[in-house]
């Protein structure tokens, strides 16, 4: 290993792609974003091969040697504690119970920091903001599920005693379907925020609504496409102002804001960042308004504006700006902080 290394890599393991970046001691990205195929279902050793491939491509693109990389930040799409995977999620069976951090570090000869993908994305959003040292940042990211993370002032992610903190999607919310029942969540419980705010929830809600006589003539009822495909098209309908699509996203946004209010009351982060695919939609400003309506319904006024100065926000809401590389950037940024 180089005695005077100056570069730090971030590796973001996704279900289909591993994204990777390298930064210097000033946290400036060097070279392009690297993407290689993810083979997580084939086992961690096969994935390690892909991670080494990504590191080699990073070094080549940055014009450096792999020996110049002083530290690696790694995120995994599964719960973990102290570098050990606790749950399978979408990984291969041999990941569970394995010290991934330790084994990868031993294989590549570089110290490794590891966390989950929600924490990594939160760290990335923190890193790309110039004013990041002034406050905490809470990331809430609707996607297939509902994830996120909390970064404390100074840039350290809060993981809890066992690496299991900030399971944002599994905060309970009091909303019910038309039949009075709370929807089931993928975790096995009922009434979780994720059962209302996620791609899976979108599919369920769309199916329920399309079964109503009111929407019998809706274009989405005139096709035999599976509900997953119909839900995928819902954003386009919302962009065009479609009443059904707007009603579903409005409910989702309101419930998300309601759940965020309880998190803000507990954590008081100062900055809430909304991530996920909705950050890239053309109707995102309207969606943010629905979030704020839900937030106002549940949060005390003091969590919106200072009681001493009504123009001073106590909680600011922003859209994510890190893009697809946010998690990899967050991991590189953290590796720089830990290993320089």
Feature tags:
340 residues, 12 strands, 17% strand, Nucleotidyltransferase, domain 5, single chain
Count of DSSP H/I helices: 8
Q: What is the CATH topology assignment of the largest domain? A: Nucleotidyltransferase, domain 5
Report strand order across the widest sheet.
Answer: 3-2-1-4-7
- Mean pLDDT over the full residue set: 92
Overview of the structural elements:
The protein has 340 residues and is α/β, with parallel strands linked by helices. It folds into 2 domains: 7-128 and 324-339, 2-Layer Sandwich (Nucleotidyltransferase, domain 5); 137-320, ATPase, nucleotide binding domain (Nucleotidyltransferase, domain 5, 2-Layer Sandwich), CATH 3.30.420. It is 35% helix and 17% strand. The strands form 3 sheets. The chain has a 5-stranded mixed sheet with strand order 3-2-1-4-7. The protein is globular and about 65 Å long.
Set out the fold topology.
Blueprint: E1 7-13, E2 17-24, E3 34-37, H1 44-62, E4 69-76, E5 80-81, E6 84-85, H2 100-108, E7 112-116, H3 117-127, E8 137-142, E9 146-152, E10 156-157, H4 199-210, H5 227-239, H6 243-267, E11 271-274, H7 284-298, E12 316-319, H8 326-339
Parallel strand pairs: 1-4, 4-7, 8-11, 11-12
Antiparallel strand pairs: 1-2, 2-3, 5-6, 8-9, 9-10
Q: Brief overview, please?
A:
This protein is an alpha/beta fold and 340 residues long. The protein has two domains: 7-128 and 324-339, ATPase, nucleotide binding domain (Nucleotidyltransferase, domain 5, 2-Layer Sandwich); 137-320, 2-Layer Sandwich (Nucleotidyltransferase, domain 5). Helices cover 35% and strands 17% of the residues.
